[in-house]
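Amino acid chain
________________
===
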Amino acid sequence: MSDAPGRPMKFPYTFSAKIAQFPMKFYVQNQWIWKYWMIGIAVATPVFYKIHKMANSPANVSKWAEIRRKEAAEHH
């Protein structure tokens, strides 16, 4: 696969031509959002993992099963 088309259109009017000629490398290198998006994912992943582990612990699962059992008994 080549880096750029051999003879690019002056105006890429098809969707695939627009995608092929879009300067994605320029945007990734020069916009702040890409860097902070990756930092945000790196910071949030351990937090969400900890919340997931606490919510799905055996003690918490049995506690919520008991709460659901009591609610179901009240409705019948």
Remarks:
- The radius of gyration is 26 Å.
